[in-house]
Amino acid sequence: MLLTAPLIHNGYQFLPEGSVVEVNETGVVVAIHDGLENKEVISYEGILCPGFVNVHCHLELSHMKGMIPEHTGLIPFLQKVPSYRETFSEEQKKIARDQAYAELIRNGIVAVGDITNTTDTMDLRQVGQLHVHSFIETIGFTDAFAQQRFDAALAVYEGFAAQHSDTVLLQQSIVPHAPYSVSRKVFELINEHQPRSIISIHNQESLAENEFYFSKQGPVNDLLGGFGIDTAFFQPFATTSLQTYTNWLSGSHPCIFIHNTYTQKEDIAFAVNRFEKTFWCLCPNANLYIENELPDVKVFLDRGVTVCIGTDSLASNHELSILSELLTLKKHFDFLEWDTLLQWATFNGAKALEMDHLIGSVETGKRPGIINISYLEASQPRVQTII
């Protein structure tokens, strides 16, 4: 099959005008041609590019769509989440997860980094239409229950690790939820389990997080106190959360920092010096939904770090669309070029999930999925899955 369009993005940059992508019947890229004459070429309008990679999603929370009001701020948002976990039947939750999975596929997404606390998404992994890295989340702020919390996550991990698929990649790792919800001992247990596993962590999503680590003041105390957690043991570190908790992890971990709404250049420099590989995942629509704030994108560009894209959950977003996330970034940061944004949404995401040997770029031998984006200048650009 020979495919072309006015613009073709290969995951890194736009190809020269007139390029043609050749794929076989299984979707593997056979060749990229400068142009072909006297051949049957299928032409599309707009842009062809690799399938999108959603680095951060919570399929487990899909039943909460529209339940929590917008612009509450992170702490009130988190206070509401546990109650909604229990107010829906298991059947309602499953229907919502199935619909969310289908929405990912419909929106041109080929791989997802899925945050999970249970084995509820095991059936979705076996559907075999999306590559999945399941980030099994630990939550436990006191050292007294650290081993118990880690053991619960380990049981979920072992269930996922037993799964295999002939059609997609299925991966998993145990990760901390956030600096304000995981104790130092839990960080250390995660580190000991797999010193080179991919770490994903909600990072500096709220000013309250840094305030708590710096001085032990602010609304994080209300959050933990509301859950009955005694914080008397915790001593502030007089520095940001990132510049504290990263010292409890081996530098050999590839680290995906999520949200980064209040991350500063000093934090980025600290992490880059601390870890062999860092990735910075932006979820702009969720940031606006919860805090009505966006990260300072320019500090990431200036440092030249690897940025990728996520949607977060339907509890904090109206849709699971990577294109929608890119459009939001372009609207608020008009200096961002589309070749950069598309790289963030494709190759960079695949690299963050350690799937770039198979997806993320249009290169010979890869099977990235090919999607068509209608003209970006249109009032409502759409995504169509070609392969």
Q: How much strand content do the residues show?
A: 15-25%
**Order of helices and strands, N to C?**
EEEEEEEHHEHEHEHEHHHEHEHHEHHHEE
Helix content: 25-40%
Low-pLDDT windows of residues = none
End-to-end C-alpha gap: 10 Å
Number of DSSP E strands? 16
Number of helices: 14
Structural class: alpha/beta
Largest beta-sheet characterization: 4 strands, mixed
- Average pLDDT: 96
Shape annotation: globular
Radius of gyration: 21 Å
Order of the strands making up the biggest sheet: 4-3-1-5
Topology summary:
Elements: E1 2-4, E2 7-8, E3 20-23, E4 29-33, E5 42-43, E6 47-50, E7 52-57, H1 74-86, H2 90-106, E8 109-116, H3 122-125, E9 131-138, H4 146-161, E10 170-176, H5 184-193, E11 199-203, H6 207-215, H7 220-226, H8 242-245, E12 254-259, H9 265-274, E13 277-282, H10 284-290, H11 297-303, E14 306-309, H12 322-332, H13 338-345, H14 347-352, E15 370-373, E16 383-385
Parallel strand pairs: 1-5, 2-6, 7-8, 8-9, 9-10, 11-12, 12-13, 13-14
Antiparallel strand pairs: 1-3, 3-4, 6-15, 15-16
Helix pairs in contact: 1-7, 4-5, 12-13
